[in-house]
Write a structure and sequence with these properties.
This protein has 2 domains: 4-197, Ribosomal Protein S5, domain 2; 206-351, GHMP kinase, C-terminal domain (Alpha-Beta Plaits, 2-Layer Sandwich), CATH 3.30.70. The two termini are 33 Å apart. The protein has helices at residues 86-96, 125-143, 149-163, 222-227, 235-255, 258-277, 288-304, 327-336, and strands spanning 17-31, 36-37, 41-42, 46-64, 72-77, 80-81, 106-114, 175-178, 192-194, 207-211, 309-311, 318-322, 347-351, 357-358. Helices cover 33% and strands 23% of the residues. Strand 2 (36-37) and strand 3 (41-42) form a beta hairpin. Helix 2 packs across helix 3 and helix 5 (235-255) packs antiparallel against helix 6 (258-277). It is α+β, with helices and mostly antiparallel strands. Bound molecules: (3R)-3-hydroxy-3-methyl-5-(phosphonooxy)pentanoic acid. (3R)-3-hydroxy-3-methyl-5-(phosphonooxy)pentanoic acid (PMV) is lined by residues 29, 32-34, 46, 123, 125, 164-166, 222, 226, 272, 313-314.
Length: 359
């Protein structure tokens, strides 16, 4: 694995102060990543839709200081200092310091906000860490103006991955593959790459409505969940299945076979949760309303000859996926029926997006 490419050689410029703001999105996996080895290396390749509306906006103000032994930063979330978020970010800086040695030369003031409600059960680590990674790369670009945009995106994804695996898929869009796969050119365990083939027009502006079933803290974090894939009785066959599914979805995305898309995506979601239920110790993240919604979606699909389907991430919320030409009818269905199964009837309309934006 060529990680040396991410260790900067000569940083030519001397920058005293700099300020960068990035908006980076959340993403939803179609083929799931569940199981990893150190340092954040996936056990199988995964692919996600980049989202458009669910994002984090982060500003980092860098000001030069005497080089210190410890990374210095303050952290504000939605305008308030957040001591409790600091250990996770400090751990992230520790993991990237070898690749971003310049962070020891600056005091960083980080200001962050999410477009989605706090504690909505929507994982903010993908958008949050990719935003910090983009701010670091903006500084690196000022220190070394010779780096290319392609390198910036690749390294930002590499850095984000070290914070949270799925964050590696939040730099670009509309479809990103992370994990080495024989059928995906240039794919790597180290960073995400844009899906390299022409995608069928039916997937253009694909819709994702996120139904907020349960906004509470997850009973088992994804870090713990990933670790339970070590010694899991079905781990090896799951990793093989996921890689096979990635090959299949690559074809589907190119040929536009929505029926095949629906069955692959739903099977992936249920398999992810089946892995949780067959871990030792076992756990369940779905809630009764998650299942109510799934059953309603199946009924609606059968009755309306629709291509609606669902996916899940590591939680109880349901992502409802559907093509743009079904937007009016499915949105009615969500508002009139599915919203009743959401906490405080809350849901978020989103669609496929194109990745990080400098603000
Ligand atoms: O990036 P992590 O460590 O939070 O893991 C995310 C795993 C899933 O969201 C369940 C699946 C995925 O591929 O995003």
């Amino acid at each position: 694995m060529n990680t040396a490419q991410f260790i900067p050689e000569i940083l030519t410029e001397n920058i005293e102060k700099a300020n960068f703001t990035w908006q980076t999105p959340s993403n939803i996996a179609l083929v799931k990543y569940w199981g990893k080895s150190n340092p954040q290396m996936p056990k199988n390749a995964s692919i996600s839709f980049t989202l458009n509306n669910c994002h984090t906006i982060t500003t980092i103000a860098f000001s030069k200081i005497e080089r210190t032994a410890e990374v210095k930063f303050d952290l504000f979330f939605e305008g308030k200092e957040k001591e409790e978020f600091k250990p996770k970010i400090a751990e992230f800086f520790k993991r990237v310091q070898e690749y971003c040695p310049y962070i020891f030369n600056y005091k960083m003031t980080i200001n962050s906000e999410n477009s989605f409600p706090h504690s909505s059960g929507i994982a903010s680590s993908a958008s949050g860490l990719s935003a910090i990674a983009m701010c670091l790369m903006s500084l690196e670009n000022e220190l070394n103006p010779s780096i290319t945009q392609e390198f910036i995106n690749k390294k930002a994804s590499f850095l984000a991955r070290l914070g949270s695996g799925s964050a590696s898929r939040s730099i670009e869009g509309p479809l990103v593959v992370w994990g080495n796969h024989p059928e995906i050119a240039e794919s790597s365990d180290l960073f995400g790459v844009q899906f390299p083939y022409k995608v069928h027009s039916v997937f253009k502006n694909y819709q994702d409505a996120i139904l907020l079933v349960d906004k509470g803290e997850k009973v088992v974090s994804s870090t713990v969940g990933h670790n339970l894939m070590h010694n899991h009785p079905y781990a090896e066959s799951r990793f093989t299945q996921a890689n096979d599914n990635l090959g299949k979805i690559s074809e589907i995305l190119q040929n536009g076979d929505l029926e095949a898309f629906v069955s692959l995506v739903e099977s992936e979601a249920l398999t992810l949760h089946a892995m949780m239920m067959t871990s030792n110790p076992y756990f369940i993240l779905m809630k009764p309303n998650t299942l109510e919604i799934i059953n309603k979606i199946w009924k609606y699909r059968a009755e309306n000859k629709s291509n609606i389907c669902f996916t899940l991430d590591a939680g109880a919320n349901v992502h409802v996926l559907y093509p743009e030409n079904e937007k009016d009818s499915v949105n009615n269905f969500i508002e009139n029926e599915l919203a009743n199964y959401c906490q405080n009837k809350q849901f978020i309309y989103d669609s496929v997006g194109f990745g990080a934006k400098k603000i």
